[in-house]
Amino acid sequence: MTPAARLAAAASVLDSIHHSRQPAEVVLKAWGAANRYAGSKDRRAIADRVYKVLRAKGRLVWAMGSREDGRALVIGSLSLIDGLSLEEIEALHSGEGYGPRPLSKQERARITAPEGELPGWVAAGIPEFVLEDFKATYGDDYRQQARELMAPRAPIDLRVNIAKTTVAAVEAELIEAGLNPVRTPWSAVGLRLSAEPPPNVQALDAFKLGHIEIQDEGSQLACWLTGVTANTTVVDYCAGGGGKTLGLAMLGQPVATAAPAAASSEPVAVWSPVGGEGQGTAPQARPKTRAAEMGIRLFAYDVVQKRLDNIRPRLNRAGVTADLRLLGQNGGGVEDLVGKADVVLVDAPCTGTGTWRRRPEDAWRLKLSEVERLHALQVQILDRASALVKPGGRLVFVTCSMLRAENEATADAFEANHPEFAKVPVAQTLDSDLITQAGKARLAELADGHRLRLSPASSGTDGFFAAVYQRPE
Predict the structure, then answer these.
(1) More confident position, 267 or 27
(2) Measured distance CA(62)–CA(84) in Å, rounded
């Protein structure tokens, strides 16, 4: 394909994304399947253009006179992002072959006009109705928060399944496969891969064998904040895709305990989740001795059966278990667990604004009415889920949202409706061995009492919010 033909294809894909609810990645794959003549370099160039446009869409729409069609956005990107001159852009729009038609008079005027002073939301690169929420939450830091959420491409985070292996072993596997993993700074069982070029994680032996799962470090940390310990009853109230279900299930696996070693002046190598250095001189495998029973009873609920069905093969691959249950639309199906759960995790439905660096197209689909609808739903869900917590048990409310209108607003409503629940300072939830020492220090710094906010700018993770509660004994 010629460079001009690639631009025309990118414009077509952008139009398809605009008129669809499908993720951009799915639309791009569908385009590639329908246009077999496009080689891998062509598909990569088209995808790069599409994501460039989506990340800067607010500014491009503004610059092109409120036009949102793919052609206008691509033309705007050539000028504002690539810095091409009018002559260079016109050369790519000759109308020859499969390239786009020549520029109109209005298009020429748009890309040659001075940009002028940008409205705050355009300069920040986020939807207009989100701006005031960001200002209220982040103050003078809102621009950096917005930029880090929208501009960079997110890395690929992996959670190592320490029920089967160690971080060190997987690290070696990935290096042997030609990748360059680095350890995540806060989760002790996380590895991070660059998204450039995007790795095909599901084709790796480590994935097929259940040694790794794709899971953002922030999502991993949400699991470790629950304080799940041996012989407890745990409820994942909104299982969704199952990422946190698998993380919690991993916590319920037997932990091997080695027989006491004879006294020796030599350093003793001990097992750790990261295959680490501990007291020894080299990483060690998990001891193959009699395991201490430490299982948890994990119940994962969702209102969509298909989502639960999709979790099952992932559990099997990871070698972990959970009781998958369909939740009624009005909260039915949990009667046998009322007042019996030691831990209830509510990863509530939300706008997903914290994942915009992965799915920038979602930013421009979101409406204020959807934020309001989800806030009301979260309040309802938290109310129902809290009934499952037994005296002394913990309730953890989590979203992958950056919006105060969902996070703090929902936590405020829950606390007003349920004053019997005590607020648990996040600093008291950081004793897990699966959080690094640096992570414990950083999370304690970011916490606001019993509430915690993570973001690409503050923690290098997706955007997450958590609030921790305990029902009194």
Answers:
(1) 27
(2) 18
Q: 426: which 2 tokens?
A: 């996040």
Supply the pLDDT for residue 446.
Answer: 97
pLDDT above 80: residue 438: yes
Distances (CA, A) of 432 to 223, 322, 346, 440: 10, 21, 19, 9
Return all residues near 103 (Cβ < 8 A) that are at least 6 apart. 75, 89, 90, 93, 111
Which of the 8 DSSP states describes residue 435?
B
* Tokens linked to 254: 């037997």
Three-class SS state of 462: coil
Q: Beta-carbon neighbour count of residue 67 at 10 Å?
A: 18
Mean pLDDT (the chain, rounded): 90
- The sign of the torsion formed by the CA atoms of 200, 201, 205, 208 equals negative
pLDDT for the residue numbered 253: 75
Across 130-189, where does the E strand assignment appear? 156-160, 182-183
Contact 144, 455 (CB under 8 A): no
3-state secondary structure of 360: helix
Per-residue pLDDT at 35: 93
CA distance 286 to 299: 27
Q: Residue 232: which of 313, 341, 138, 131 has the closest Cα?
A: 341
Q: Among candidates 360, 302, 292, which has minimal Cα distance to 326?
A: 302
Give the number of other Cβ atoms within 10 Å of residue 326's Cβ. 13
Tokens 């909260």 appear where? Answer: 331
Q: What is the CA radius of gyration of the chain?
A: 25
Question: Tens of pLDDT along 253-312?
Answer: 754 222 233 333 333 333 344 444 333 333 334 333 223 345 789 999 999 999 999 999
Q: pLDDT by residue (tens digit) across 129-176?
A: 999 999 999 999 999 999 999 988 999 999 999 999 999 999 999 999
For residues 326 and 333, is the Cβ–Cβ distance under 8 A? yes
Which tokens go with 126? 């986020």
Task: Classify the phi-psi angles of 178: left when phi > 0, otherwise alpha if psi is within -120 to 50, otherwise beta.
Answer: left
- The partner residues of 451 in beta bridges, in order of sequence, read 448, 467
Rounded to the nearest angstrom, the gap between the alpha carbon of residue 430 and the centroid of all alpha carbons in its chain is: 21
CA 283/CA 389 separation, integer angstroms: 39
Tokens matching residue 375: 């806030």
| pLDDT one-digit tens code per residue, 367-401 | 999 999 999 999 999 999 999 999 999 999 999 99
- List the Cα angle 18/19/21 in 5-degree steps: 85
Nearest partner of 243 among 203, 294, 190, judged by Cα: 190
| Residue linked to tokens 């997450």 | 464
